[in-house]
Design goal:
mainly alpha; two-stranded antiparallel ribbon; 1% strand; globular
Protein backbone atom coordinates (compact mmCIF):
# COMPACT_ATOMS: atom_id res chain seq x y z
CA UNK A 1 0.00 0.00 0.00
CA UNK A 2 1.44 3.39 -0.97
CA UNK A 3 1.73 5.97 1.76
CA UNK A 4 -0.32 9.13 1.46
CA UNK A 5 0.63 10.63 4.81
CA UNK A 6 0.38 14.44 4.35
CA UNK A 7 3.53 15.04 6.40
CA UNK A 8 5.46 12.58 4.20
CA UNK A 9 4.25 14.36 1.05
CA UNK A 10 5.10 17.71 2.57
CA UNK A 11 8.63 16.59 3.47
CA UNK A 12 9.13 15.12 0.01
CA UNK A 13 8.14 18.34 -1.73
CA UNK A 14 10.36 20.31 0.66
CA UNK A 15 13.37 18.16 -0.26
CA UNK A 16 12.52 18.32 -3.96
CA UNK A 17 12.49 22.12 -3.83
CA UNK A 18 16.01 22.14 -2.39
CA UNK A 19 17.19 20.02 -5.32
CA UNK A 20 15.36 21.69 -8.18
CA UNK A 21 17.10 25.01 -7.51
CA UNK A 22 20.67 23.64 -7.23
CA UNK A 23 21.61 25.10 -10.66
CA UNK A 24 20.92 28.58 -9.29
CA UNK A 25 23.21 27.93 -6.32
CA UNK A 26 25.93 26.74 -8.70
CA UNK A 27 25.51 29.92 -10.75
CA UNK A 28 25.76 32.14 -7.66
CA UNK A 29 28.90 30.36 -6.46
CA UNK A 30 30.42 30.68 -9.94
CA UNK A 31 29.80 34.45 -9.90
CA UNK A 32 31.56 34.88 -6.54
CA UNK A 33 34.49 32.62 -7.36
CA UNK A 34 34.84 34.00 -10.87
CA UNK A 35 34.85 37.58 -9.63
CA UNK A 36 37.51 36.86 -7.01
CA UNK A 37 39.63 34.84 -9.44
CA UNK A 38 39.50 37.00 -12.56
CA UNK A 39 37.90 40.42 -12.16
CA UNK A 40 39.13 41.57 -8.74
CA UNK A 41 42.84 40.80 -9.36
CA UNK A 42 42.91 42.05 -12.98
CA UNK A 43 40.98 45.32 -12.67
CA UNK A 44 42.70 47.57 -10.11
CA UNK A 45 39.82 49.25 -8.28
CA UNK A 46 38.72 49.51 -4.68
CA UNK A 47 35.76 47.25 -5.41
CA UNK A 48 34.64 46.86 -1.80
CA UNK A 49 34.52 50.63 -1.26
CA UNK A 50 32.69 51.09 -4.57
CA UNK A 51 29.94 48.50 -4.12
CA UNK A 52 29.79 47.72 -0.43
CA UNK A 53 29.78 49.37 2.96
CA UNK A 54 32.54 47.13 4.20
CA UNK A 55 34.36 49.56 6.49
CA UNK A 56 31.18 50.56 8.35
CA UNK A 57 30.02 46.99 8.86
CA UNK A 58 33.47 45.83 9.99
CA UNK A 59 33.71 48.70 12.49
CA UNK A 60 30.30 47.91 13.96
CA UNK A 61 31.10 44.18 14.06
CA UNK A 62 34.32 44.93 15.92
CA UNK A 63 32.35 47.06 18.40
CA UNK A 64 29.99 44.13 19.02
CA UNK A 65 32.89 41.81 19.84
CA UNK A 66 33.93 44.37 22.49
CA UNK A 67 30.50 44.54 24.11
CA UNK A 68 29.03 47.66 22.54
CA UNK A 69 27.54 48.77 19.23
CA UNK A 70 27.74 52.53 18.71
CA UNK A 71 30.41 54.44 20.63
CA UNK A 72 28.84 56.76 23.19
CA UNK A 73 30.71 59.90 22.06
CA UNK A 74 29.63 59.57 18.39
CA UNK A 75 26.26 57.72 18.68
CA UNK A 76 26.98 56.32 15.21
CA UNK A 77 23.88 54.34 14.18
CA UNK A 78 23.91 54.35 10.40
CA UNK A 79 23.18 50.63 10.13
CA UNK A 80 21.12 48.14 12.08
CA UNK A 81 22.99 45.37 13.92
CA UNK A 82 21.70 42.48 11.77
CA UNK A 83 24.60 42.20 9.33
CA UNK A 84 27.31 43.29 11.81
CA UNK A 85 26.08 40.49 14.12
CA UNK A 86 26.84 37.99 11.35
CA UNK A 87 30.33 39.43 10.86
CA UNK A 88 30.91 39.51 14.63
CA UNK A 89 30.00 35.81 14.83
CA UNK A 90 32.65 35.07 12.20
CA UNK A 91 35.19 37.05 14.19
CA UNK A 92 34.35 35.21 17.41
CA UNK A 93 34.65 31.86 15.61
CA UNK A 94 38.01 32.97 14.16
CA UNK A 95 36.75 32.45 10.62
CA UNK A 96 38.00 34.61 7.72
CA UNK A 97 35.71 37.56 7.07
CA UNK A 98 35.60 36.51 3.42
CA UNK A 99 33.37 33.70 4.71
CA UNK A 100 30.57 36.26 4.73
CA UNK A 101 30.96 36.65 0.97
CA UNK A 102 31.00 32.87 0.44
CA UNK A 103 27.73 32.79 2.40
CA UNK A 104 26.08 35.22 -0.02
CA UNK A 105 25.28 32.60 -2.69
CA UNK A 106 23.70 30.32 -0.07
CA UNK A 107 21.63 33.18 1.34
CA UNK A 108 20.36 34.13 -2.11
CA UNK A 109 19.66 30.46 -2.85
CA UNK A 110 17.64 30.32 0.38
CA UNK A 111 15.62 33.33 -0.75
CA UNK A 112 14.81 31.59 -4.05
CA UNK A 113 13.88 28.41 -2.15
CA UNK A 114 11.33 30.27 -0.03
CA UNK A 115 10.05 32.08 -3.12
CA UNK A 116 9.43 28.75 -4.82
CA UNK A 117 7.58 27.50 -1.75
CA UNK A 118 5.35 30.58 -1.81
CA UNK A 119 4.73 30.46 -5.55
CA UNK A 120 3.94 26.73 -5.50
CA UNK A 121 0.91 27.48 -3.36
CA UNK A 122 -0.28 30.29 -5.60
CA UNK A 123 0.22 29.10 -9.19
CA UNK A 124 0.72 25.68 -10.84
CA UNK A 125 3.99 24.15 -9.73
CA UNK A 126 5.67 23.90 -13.17
CA UNK A 127 5.01 27.59 -13.68
CA UNK A 128 6.21 28.35 -10.13
CA UNK A 129 9.58 26.74 -10.92
CA UNK A 130 9.93 28.79 -14.09
CA UNK A 131 9.02 32.02 -12.34
CA UNK A 132 11.50 31.27 -9.54
CA UNK A 133 14.29 30.73 -12.07
CA UNK A 134 13.42 34.00 -13.78
CA UNK A 135 13.50 35.70 -10.39
CA UNK A 136 16.79 34.00 -9.56
CA UNK A 137 18.59 35.49 -12.56
CA UNK A 138 17.39 39.05 -11.88
CA UNK A 139 20.64 40.90 -12.82
CA UNK A 140 20.89 43.27 -9.80
CA UNK A 141 21.07 40.21 -7.50
CA UNK A 142 24.48 39.41 -8.96
CA UNK A 143 25.92 42.84 -8.15
CA UNK A 144 25.69 42.18 -4.42
CA UNK A 145 27.06 38.63 -4.41
CA UNK A 146 30.85 39.27 -4.33
CA UNK A 147 30.76 42.05 -1.72
CA UNK A 148 30.04 42.83 1.92
CA UNK A 149 26.49 43.90 1.20
CA UNK A 150 23.29 43.24 3.11
CA UNK A 151 21.11 42.37 0.12
CA UNK A 152 21.53 38.54 0.17
CA UNK A 153 20.78 38.41 3.89
CA UNK A 154 17.87 40.83 3.46
CA UNK A 155 16.39 38.73 0.66
CA UNK A 156 16.46 35.43 2.53
CA UNK A 157 14.97 37.06 5.62
CA UNK A 158 12.18 38.75 3.66
CA UNK A 159 11.29 35.69 1.55
CA UNK A 160 11.47 33.45 4.62
CA UNK A 161 9.26 35.87 6.56
CA UNK A 162 6.69 35.92 3.75
CA UNK A 163 6.69 32.12 3.58
CA UNK A 164 6.29 31.49 7.31
CA UNK A 165 3.61 34.16 7.53
CA UNK A 166 1.66 32.26 4.88
CA UNK A 167 2.10 29.08 6.91
CA UNK A 168 0.81 30.82 10.03
CA UNK A 169 -2.43 31.62 8.19
CA UNK A 170 -3.17 27.89 8.26
CA UNK A 171 -3.14 27.80 12.05
CA UNK A 172 0.42 26.67 12.83
CA UNK A 173 1.30 28.86 15.82
CA UNK A 174 4.93 27.75 15.76
CA UNK A 175 5.18 29.50 12.39
CA UNK A 176 3.93 32.72 14.03
CA UNK A 177 7.12 32.86 16.06
CA UNK A 178 9.39 31.89 13.18
CA UNK A 179 7.77 34.50 10.96
CA UNK A 180 7.95 37.14 13.68
CA UNK A 181 11.64 36.43 14.34
CA UNK A 182 12.46 36.68 10.63
CA UNK A 183 10.54 39.94 10.19
CA UNK A 184 12.28 41.31 13.28
CA UNK A 185 15.77 40.34 12.16
CA UNK A 186 14.95 41.82 8.75
CA UNK A 187 14.27 45.16 10.47
CA UNK A 188 17.56 44.87 12.36
CA UNK A 189 19.35 44.28 9.05
CA UNK A 190 17.60 46.96 6.98
CA UNK A 191 16.32 49.52 9.46
CA UNK A 192 13.83 50.97 6.96
CA UNK A 193 11.87 47.76 7.50
CA UNK A 194 11.40 48.78 11.13
CA UNK A 195 9.04 51.49 9.90
CA UNK A 196 7.56 49.14 7.30
CA UNK A 197 6.74 46.60 10.01
CA UNK A 198 5.11 49.26 12.18
CA UNK A 199 2.96 50.36 9.24
CA UNK A 200 2.06 46.73 8.48
CA UNK A 201 1.14 46.13 12.13
CA UNK A 202 -1.17 49.14 12.11
CA UNK A 203 -2.68 48.20 8.75
CA UNK A 204 -3.34 44.57 9.62
CA UNK A 205 -4.52 45.59 13.07
CA UNK A 206 -7.27 47.66 11.42
CA UNK A 207 -8.21 44.71 9.19
CA UNK A 208 -8.08 42.09 11.93
CA UNK A 209 -11.78 42.37 12.79
CA UNK A 210 -12.71 41.44 9.21
CA UNK A 211 -10.21 38.70 8.42
CA UNK A 212 -8.61 35.88 10.40
CA UNK A 213 -5.45 35.93 8.24
CA UNK A 214 -5.14 39.66 8.98
CA UNK A 215 -5.45 39.02 12.73
CA UNK A 216 -2.74 36.35 12.61
CA UNK A 217 -0.52 38.60 10.52
CA UNK A 218 -0.88 41.44 13.02
CA UNK A 219 0.26 39.05 15.76
CA UNK A 220 3.34 38.14 13.71
CA UNK A 221 4.31 41.79 13.31
CA UNK A 222 3.78 42.34 17.03
CA UNK A 223 6.24 39.50 17.66
CA UNK A 224 8.71 41.07 15.20
CA UNK A 225 8.72 44.33 17.17
CA UNK A 226 9.42 42.32 20.33
CA UNK A 227 12.48 40.91 18.57
CA UNK A 228 13.63 44.48 17.90
CA UNK A 229 12.88 45.68 21.42
CA UNK A 230 16.40 45.12 22.86
CA UNK A 231 17.90 47.21 20.05
CA UNK A 232 15.28 49.95 20.48
CA UNK A 233 15.90 50.02 24.26
CA UNK A 234 19.62 50.31 23.51
CA UNK A 235 19.11 53.25 21.12
CA UNK A 236 16.76 54.88 23.62
CA UNK A 237 19.40 54.66 26.36
CA UNK A 238 22.05 55.97 23.96
CA UNK A 239 20.06 58.83 22.40
CA UNK A 240 17.13 59.50 24.73
CA UNK A 241 14.79 59.06 21.77
CA UNK A 242 11.96 56.51 21.58
CA UNK A 243 11.65 54.18 18.56
CA UNK A 244 14.99 55.40 17.24
CA UNK A 245 16.33 53.09 14.52
CA UNK A 246 19.25 55.04 13.09
CA UNK A 247 20.63 58.46 12.28
CA UNK A 248 21.27 58.40 8.54
CA UNK A 249 17.77 59.63 7.68
CA UNK A 250 18.55 63.29 8.29
CA UNK A 251 21.29 63.37 5.66
CA UNK A 252 19.10 61.48 3.19
CA UNK A 253 16.26 63.96 3.65
CA UNK A 254 18.65 66.92 3.45
CA UNK A 255 19.92 65.88 0.04
CA UNK A 256 16.38 65.12 -1.15
CA UNK A 257 15.47 68.70 -0.23
CA UNK A 258 18.42 70.08 -2.24
CA UNK A 259 17.18 73.50 -3.47
CA UNK A 260 19.71 74.03 -6.27
CA UNK A 261 18.33 73.70 -9.77
CA UNK A 262 21.38 71.94 -11.24
CA UNK A 263 21.34 69.16 -8.61
CA UNK A 264 18.82 66.33 -8.48
CA UNK A 265 18.37 65.32 -4.86
CA UNK A 266 20.82 62.41 -4.77
CA UNK A 267 22.73 61.74 -1.57
CA UNK A 268 26.39 62.79 -1.59
CA UNK A 269 28.28 61.55 1.42
CA UNK A 270 31.55 62.79 -0.08
CA UNK A 271 30.33 66.33 -0.78
CA UNK A 272 33.11 67.97 1.26
CA UNK A 273 35.67 66.44 -1.11
CA UNK A 274 33.79 67.57 -4.22
CA UNK A 275 34.22 71.23 -5.25
CA UNK A 276 31.03 71.17 -7.32
CA UNK A 277 29.09 70.88 -4.05
CA UNK A 278 30.66 74.06 -2.63
CA UNK A 279 27.23 75.55 -1.86
CA UNK A 280 26.70 72.84 0.78
CA UNK A 281 30.13 73.08 2.39
CA UNK A 282 29.29 75.82 4.89
CA UNK A 283 26.30 73.99 6.35
CA UNK A 284 28.02 70.59 6.44
CA UNK A 285 31.05 72.15 8.15
CA UNK A 286 28.78 73.73 10.77
CA UNK A 287 27.43 70.35 11.93
CA UNK A 288 30.49 68.11 11.58
CA UNK A 289 31.58 68.66 15.20
CA UNK A 290 28.26 67.33 16.50
CA UNK A 291 27.64 63.69 17.32
CA UNK A 292 25.53 61.74 14.85
CA UNK A 293 22.26 62.13 16.75
CA UNK A 294 22.70 65.90 16.83
CA UNK A 295 23.79 65.91 13.18
CA UNK A 296 20.70 63.93 12.24
CA UNK A 297 18.45 66.50 13.93
CA UNK A 298 20.30 69.42 12.33
CA UNK A 299 20.04 67.88 8.85
CA UNK A 300 16.32 67.33 9.33
CA UNK A 301 15.76 70.93 10.43
CA UNK A 302 17.62 72.25 7.39
CA UNK A 303 15.77 69.82 5.13
CA UNK A 304 12.43 71.11 6.41
CA UNK A 305 13.53 74.68 5.74
CA UNK A 306 14.52 73.73 2.20
CA UNK A 307 11.23 71.92 1.56
CA UNK A 308 9.04 74.74 2.84
CA UNK A 309 11.08 77.35 0.95
CA UNK A 310 11.33 75.40 -2.32
CA UNK A 311 8.39 72.93 -2.44
CA UNK A 312 8.39 72.64 -6.25
CA UNK A 313 12.09 71.73 -6.23
CA UNK A 314 11.40 69.01 -3.68
CA UNK A 315 8.73 67.59 -6.01
CA UNK A 316 11.27 67.69 -8.85
CA UNK A 317 13.82 65.86 -6.67
CA UNK A 318 11.14 63.31 -5.76
CA UNK A 319 10.50 62.59 -9.45
CA UNK A 320 14.24 62.21 -10.02
CA UNK A 321 14.33 59.87 -7.03
CA UNK A 322 11.85 57.58 -8.77
CA UNK A 323 14.24 57.41 -11.69
CA UNK A 324 17.10 56.45 -9.37
CA UNK A 325 14.97 53.89 -7.54
CA UNK A 326 13.93 52.10 -10.73
CA UNK A 327 16.69 52.88 -13.24
CA UNK A 328 19.66 54.24 -11.25
CA UNK A 329 19.38 57.58 -13.05
CA UNK A 330 19.81 60.61 -12.80
CA UNK A 331 22.69 61.57 -10.50
CA UNK A 332 24.18 65.04 -10.17
CA UNK A 333 27.58 65.61 -11.80
CA UNK A 334 27.94 61.95 -12.71
CA UNK A 335 29.00 60.50 -16.04
CA UNK A 336 27.08 57.63 -17.57
CA UNK A 337 28.11 54.17 -16.39
CA UNK A 338 27.46 50.97 -18.38
CA UNK A 339 26.62 49.20 -15.10
CA UNK A 340 23.33 51.12 -15.20
CA UNK A 341 22.22 48.71 -17.90
CA UNK A 342 22.07 45.97 -15.25
CA UNK A 343 19.24 47.96 -13.68
CA UNK A 344 17.51 49.71 -16.59
CA UNK A 345 16.31 46.73 -18.62
CA UNK A 346 15.22 44.33 -15.85
CA UNK A 347 13.68 47.10 -13.77
CA UNK A 348 11.76 48.41 -16.78
CA UNK A 349 10.20 44.93 -17.00
CA UNK A 350 9.49 44.95 -13.25
CA UNK A 351 7.96 48.41 -13.43
CA UNK A 352 5.73 47.59 -16.39
CA UNK A 353 4.79 44.20 -14.95
CA UNK A 354 3.91 45.73 -11.59
CA UNK A 355 1.61 48.33 -13.17
CA UNK A 356 -0.10 45.66 -15.29
CA UNK A 357 -0.49 43.38 -12.26
CA UNK A 358 -2.03 46.16 -10.17
CA UNK A 359 -4.57 46.93 -12.89
CA UNK A 360 -5.50 43.25 -13.09
CA UNK A 361 -5.67 42.69 -9.34
CA UNK A 362 -7.84 45.69 -8.44
CA UNK A 363 -10.81 44.58 -10.52
CA UNK A 364 -13.95 44.95 -8.35
CA UNK A 365 -15.23 41.71 -6.84
CA UNK A 366 -12.06 39.73 -7.51
CA UNK A 367 -10.87 37.33 -4.80
CA UNK A 368 -7.16 37.05 -4.04
CA UNK A 369 -5.01 35.04 -1.63
CA UNK A 370 -3.78 36.96 1.43
CA UNK A 371 -0.25 36.92 -0.02
CA UNK A 372 -1.33 39.51 -2.59
CA UNK A 373 -2.17 42.03 0.13
CA UNK A 374 0.97 41.23 2.15
CA UNK A 375 3.33 41.58 -0.81
CA UNK A 376 1.52 44.67 -2.04
CA UNK A 377 1.66 46.47 1.30
CA UNK A 378 5.27 45.43 1.95
CA UNK A 379 6.35 46.90 -1.37
CA UNK A 380 4.16 49.99 -1.05
CA UNK A 381 5.44 50.97 2.41
CA UNK A 382 9.07 50.25 1.46
CA UNK A 383 8.76 52.26 -1.75
CA UNK A 384 7.05 55.09 0.13
CA UNK A 385 9.92 55.40 2.61
CA UNK A 386 12.59 55.37 -0.09
CA UNK A 387 10.60 57.88 -2.14
CA UNK A 388 11.28 60.67 0.34
CA UNK A 389 14.93 59.79 0.95
CA UNK A 390 17.82 59.76 -1.47
CA UNK A 391 18.09 56.32 -2.99
CA UNK A 392 19.42 54.28 -5.89
CA UNK A 393 18.32 51.17 -7.75
CA UNK A 394 20.11 48.98 -5.21
CA UNK A 395 17.28 49.78 -2.80
CA UNK A 396 14.77 48.12 -5.12
CA UNK A 397 16.51 44.73 -4.84
CA UNK A 398 14.62 43.52 -1.70
CA UNK A 399 11.32 44.45 -3.38
CA UNK A 400 11.92 42.26 -6.44
CA UNK A 401 10.45 39.04 -4.90
CA UNK A 402 7.22 40.70 -3.65
CA UNK A 403 6.76 42.38 -7.05
CA UNK A 404 7.31 39.14 -8.95
CA UNK A 405 4.95 37.26 -6.61
CA UNK A 406 2.30 39.91 -7.30
CA UNK A 407 2.84 39.50 -11.04
CA UNK A 408 2.58 35.71 -10.71
CA UNK A 409 -0.69 36.02 -8.79
CA UNK A 410 -2.09 38.39 -11.39
CA UNK A 411 -1.18 36.42 -14.50
CA UNK A 412 -0.38 32.86 -13.41
CA UNK A 413 -3.53 31.82 -11.57
CA UNK A 414 -5.42 30.52 -14.58
CA UNK A 415 -5.66 27.14 -12.86
CA UNK A 416 -6.49 26.31 -9.27
CA UNK A 417 -3.17 26.20 -7.44
CA UNK A 418 -4.51 24.86 -4.15
CA UNK A 419 -2.70 21.69 -3.26
CA UNK A 420 0.13 22.16 -5.75
CA UNK A 421 2.43 23.14 -2.93
CA UNK A 422 2.60 23.25 0.82
CA UNK A 423 1.02 26.69 1.04
CA UNK A 424 -2.71 26.40 0.52
CA UNK A 425 -4.48 29.38 -0.97
CA UNK A 426 -6.89 31.10 1.38
CA UNK A 427 -9.25 33.25 -0.66
CA UNK A 428 -10.35 36.60 0.75
CA UNK A 429 -12.70 38.96 -1.04
CA UNK A 430 -11.55 42.34 -2.27
CA UNK A 431 -13.53 45.03 -0.41
Amino acid sequence: MSSSNPSTIKTGIFRLDTIVLIPLLALYLAVVLGFDSYIRPNIPMDWDAMFGDQDRYLELADNLTHGCYATAHTSYLWSGPGYPLLLAALKILHLPLRTAIILNPFLLYGAMFYSLRILSGLIPRPLAIKVTYLMGIYPPFFISLPFFMTEPLTLVLLCGALYYTSQAWQGDRQKWWIGGILWGYLALTKITFGYVILALLLGYGLLSARSKPACKTAMIFAISLLVCLPYLIYTWNLTGKIFYWGNAGGQALYWMSNPYSDEYGDWRGDAMNRPEYHRHHAFISSVRSLNFVQQDAAYKRQAWKNITSHPSKFVFNWVCNQGRFWFNYPFSYKQQNPLALLYIFPNALLFGGLLAAILRLIKPGAAHPPMVLLCGLTFFFSWGLHSIAGCEARYLIPSAPPIIILMACAFGRGHNATGTGVTKVVEIPTP
